Amino acid sequence: MTMTELAVASHRRRLVDKTLYAGNARSVMWRGWRVASRTHYGIMISGFFEPVFYLLSLGIGLGGLVGVVAAPDGREIPYAAFIAPALLATSAMNGAIYDSTWNVFFKLNYSKLYDGMLATRLGPLDVALGEIGIALARGAVYAGGFMIVMTVLGLNMSWWALAALPATVLIAFGFASLGMAVTSYMKTFQQMDWINFVLLPMFLLSATFYPLSVYPQLVQWFIQAMPLWHAVELVRSLTTGVVHLGLLWHVLYFTVLSVIGIRFTTARLRALFLT
Amino acid sequence: MLRATDLVKTYGEKCAVDGIDFEVPAGESFGLLGPNGAGKSTTMRMVGAVSTRTSGELEILGLDPNDYGPEIRSQLGVVPQADNLDVDLRVRDNLLVYGRYFGLDRKIVARRADELLEFAQLSDRKTARVDDLSGGMKRRLTIARALINEPAMLLLDEPTTGLDPQARHILWDRLFQLKERGITLILTTHYMDEAEQLCDRLIVVDEGKIMAEGSPANLIRQYSSREVLEVRFGTEHNANAAKRLEGLGDRMELLPDRILIYAPDGETVLNQVIATGLEPITSLVRRSSLEDVFLRLTGRSLIE
Predict the structure, then answer these.
(1) How far B59 CA sits from the closest chain A CA (Å)?
(2) Which of A141, A216, B25, B86 has its CA 20 to 30 A from that of B142?
(3) Rounded alpha-carbon distances, angstroms, from residue A20 to A85, A167, B284
(4) Domain-located, residue B167
(5) Minimal Cα–Cα distance from B55 to chain A, Å?
(6) Average per-residue pLDDT for chain A
(7) Nearest in space to B143 (alpha carbons), one of B191, B105, B198
(8) pLDDT at A157 over 80
(9) Does A113 reach chain B within 8 Å, measured CB to CB?
(10) Three-state SS for B86?
């Protein structure tokens, strides 16, 4: 590279960073907070209760028939303690998905909120980070609430369960950025329904209610590629106290997912609003 | 303050803005007048640093928007054509939150929000829902919001389209106050009266090109006569009547519903019309307006 090319390249890089990000994602989060603190408590609460009902019906109800199952290390644990961490991961996912899909879809296509934001000093990365931050916060609140339910029911088998809280934040981050990235490409309600079409089987089949070993090898590989499986494995290992270095793979998975999601969201917002 | 040189914006095959030049000094109130689809909004988006030009040069507040988008946007106030107020937030919160997008301190934003609500005559609607406001109130709130960062330049894209006459006059009054304070106003409109009220200078745009440039009074002087006589003979008879009236006044325009005759003195021409033995159903003598300028330049009405 010649000196001129270097200068041009560094010039370009500076431009991209500066035009994409004003370092003010918190103002977007602040808006989300102002809105959330005034509206839709009903919707918020329903999203939290869904996994709680699963825990009560399947964990306590069905659990009476199932009895004990094997923890990740082979130890025998009550069925409820087996599915509770999976539902904790799901609850983080639900909270994150709720804000980052339907809410974002509405703002993108109907309320023109991002038009207004991007006419200010804010760049698309500020908007993406702020919106994902709000979705993540909701996921974390759901997960925190569910954690309390688990503790009350005595389903945390280890002090490592405390580490499940930051883990759920990371999980929510991953799902929120993935959700917003996918939503930014959606144009119609029909397309949005596809998100639910993917989420429900993922929830039921990601080793949530029974171990992965019931599947043939090929299906196992497929499930292991799904984000919720990584979330379930990570959280289950922590709440049952089976901690090993292999868990870092799950952390890496969600870190990569978050970064990819933010990159796509930012690029898409830029293409949509700063043409 | 603002300088465009051979500015072009194409979307695929379509050329929305086709090489326009203009320059706006600080403190001037500058208008883009033209029919729908003339390229006004596209120009405004480029001037607002949210749309990149295809070619040509553009300098906003001394900066190139390709390199300094955020810096430019932080010194602009934008009133878009369609309201994009935050419907999830109450009236005052709209201002607070918007101010925070500029990275302004919460206390400063709170103080300015109250001043601007006063200015927009919305102080008694602080906690109202945005959806409960009338069209005129929403526009005033949008203008207040655009002023929260104390911009050097305010961009207004058809600020009074869709408002009733009273709401328009309130809005014009507010905008005139801003003009008096020395804020540079850039506005698009397809209303002649609006351009005449608010613009020191304007360009007439059609199909992405500048047709004429000047102050409203100069444009009228240059492209029209002092007065216009409008006569109607009924839709079926206008064309025949126009043939018989040829030669009267400086110039004549035949429209589907009426005939326009341009002359320094409309009453004299009206007497001449009656002297030919034709009896118009209605007749009206009025001052020339920018509408006539536009008709002269493009052969078409401004509002179809």
Answers:
(1) 17
(2) B25
(3) 38, 29, 57
(4) yes
(5) 14
(6) 89
(7) B198
(8) yes
(9) yes
(10) coil
pLDDT in tens, A181-222: 999 999 999 999 999 899 999 999 999 999 999 999 999 999
Q: Taking chain B (304 residues) in consecutive chunks of 10 residues, what is each chunk's mean pLDDT?
A: 95 92 96 89 94 95 92 94 92 97 96 96 96 95 96 94 89 93 92 87 92 92 90 89 89 89 92 90 90 82 56
Q: Which residue has the tokens 């709170």?
A: B110
CATH for B276: 3.30.70.980
For residue B68, what are the domain limits? 2-215
Q: Is A22 on the interface with B (CB under 8 A)?
A: yes
* pLDDT score recorded for residue B93: 96
**Token output for B93:** 């919160």
Structural domain tally of chain B?
A: 2
Domain containing B24 — which CATH number? Answer: 3.40.50.300
Please give the ipTM for the structure prediction.
Answer: 0.84
B293 part of a folded domain? no
Asked if A15 has any chain B CB less than 8 Å from its own CB, the reply is yes
Residues in chain B: 304
Q: Do A111 and B84 touch (CB under 8 A)?
A: yes
Regarding whether B11 and B102 lie in a shared domain, the answer is yes
In this structure, the answer to whether residues B163 and B15 fall within a common structural domain is yes
**Which of A30, A113, A123 faces B100 most closely, judged by CB atoms?**
A30
Give the β-pairing of A68-70 and B153-157.
unpaired
Which among B69, B76, B103 is the nearest to A27, CB-wise? B103
Indicate if the pLDDT at residue A9 is higher than 80: no
Q: Please, which pLDDT band fits residue A43 given cuts at 50, 70 and 90?
A: low
Residues B199 and B257 in one domain: no
Residues B118 and B99 in one domain: yes
